[in-house]
Amino acid sequence: MRQEALSKPMALGHDIFPRVQPHIYTWINKYGKNYLSWDGVRAELVISEPELIKENMTPAVISSVETMLEKWKGYVGKEIELFEEFRLLTSEVISRTAFGNKLTLVSFYSKLWEPADVLLSEELANEIQGCVMKMIKKREDRVVNGGADSFGNDFLGLHVNAYHDLDDKNMLSLGDLVDECKTFCLAGQDTVNSLLAWTIFLLAIHGDWQEKARREVIDIFGNQNPHSEGIVKLKIMTMIINETLRLYGPANGLIRKVGREVQIGKLVLPANIDLYVANVVPQHDPQLWGDDVHLFKPERFAEGIAKATKYNAAAFCPFGIGPRSCVGMSFATMETKIALSMILQRYTISLSPAYVHSPISVITIQPEHGIQVILKSLHSNV
């Protein structure tokens, strides 16, 4: 089913659900919005009804974006593929902000993006762990050798501190420390990479909204770098980002495990069943968003998310919902706004004729063949 759905590109539209999750699309139409399936020997309940789904980093982000934009000067008037550009950018941002090193994670990310069959191999898993262990040991050595009086207060430093905690109740095991680093890197990088890429894609084919966003950025920042006081004032950009998240939300499903018997609506779930929350379904549901559900219309969010969803929180939950929602949501949107602002200050962007519309689900929603655009400089010295 998946192979058939991906066998050819789709028209330049945004009805991506049948393509990126053809099995869930087919089974929802056959069995209803909530259905039970089996993943090997484990039962999995898929639910898609909304009623059941319910400042210190800014300089590092700016520095990373400036590095990327310096490279872009050589592509003015030419085609450039942005998905890989944003992958490098988001990798560097995570490296700077969480691990204090611009180049720490280059080899780590190159290993994460090996083909799936290779990624599962024990050899590669050991290599990835080795990359993380080197980062940890470097922090430990600095303290032991007197180069620093603490492990640091960034993400890695706080976790190394927990690893060395003398209180067993607070101490983090080495395995947990390594796993936390791997999870943070993958989730933090991949989510923003996807969001940035699809936002630029949509702005490239909707020049009116690209110009509206640019005017807002210039009104707030002029030609200066973004700052925290101005970022919170970017109303039009927030509308654009929310509509991008609705159409091409990074996480197209959320997996949970039921720890004890619980009732959700009219459904009684037994303990130990896996729960798959198909949040992409309500975000593409015409009954919730209207007949124009597959159109790019940021004005839906002009009065905020609550009004756009008619106060149905589960109709729009690209980062999850409730206490288990993504802790990196604010950082992801902040990083996206900074990067978009700095790009719009310098370039107009149009979609390249070489672009093939083939969104696929690989952890996040990604462009199978990349996103090719043409850059046009707004300034003669860029």
TrEMBL record:
Keyword list, A-Z: Heme, Iron, Membrane, Metal-binding, Monooxygenase, Oxidoreductase, Transmembrane, Transmembrane helix
Major subcellular site: membrane
Gene Ontology MF terms: heme binding; iron ion binding; monooxygenase activity; oxidoreductase activity, acting on paired donors, with incorporation or reduction of molecular oxygen
UniProt KW Oxidoreductase keyword: yes
Cofactor(s) recorded in Swiss-Prot or TrEMBL: heme
Residue ranges of the TM segments: none
InterPro entries per record: Cyt_P450 (IPR001128), Cyt_P450_CS (IPR017972), Cyt_P450_E_grp-I (IPR002401), Cyt_P450_sf (IPR036396), Cytochrome_P450_Monooxygen (IPR050665)
Recorded family membership: Belongs to the cytochrome P450 family.
Name of this protein: Cytochrome P450 CYP749A22-like
Organism of this sequence: Gossypium hirsutum
Gene (UniProt): LOC107914213
